Amino acid sequence: MAGGILKTVPLTVNAQKGWSFDPDQLRKTLTKKTKLMILNNPHNPTGKLFTRDELQTITDILKDFPDCMVLADEVYDFLTYDGGEHVRFATLGDNWNRTITVYSGGKLFNATGWKIGWAIAHPKLLRLGGIINSGLFYCVNHPGQIAMSKALPLVEKENLDGDGKPSFVA
After folding, report:
1. Domains of the chain, earliest start first
2. CA 143 to CA 147: how far, in whole Å?
3. What does the pLDDT read at residue 141?
């Protein structure tokens, strides 16, 4: 409806490196007209966890595109395996000023029917999102709001158990 044009940069897979992206292809796909890049990390459905170096490469490329914002879909941030480290894209360089990071309570608590999520970003970016959000949604279901308000304080994200899932305090 807004006249945007979708362009994609696919992930490719090989036996040695697993899933990866081509930085040159990303650079060629972005233009001065690019307004938003969506970054899904950890990636669904491949499970690819972008490394700190890969995220830094993306950050460096985006320096040439100052008007491009990033929507960082990090709803699976707690699903890392084999000692992988999830790095929040907004924490690198000046990305905080251009990144809206979204999370999902439904994914975090294995309750996808809750349909409750949240965004973290610089206040100037959240203000605009709030304006749009108030015109798109009426509200999240009340039982889901209560459940999320009770569940979120129980998460200790810094203390993950052995299978990569958040530990909870009683």
Report:
1. 12-168 (3.40.640.10)
2. 6
3. 79
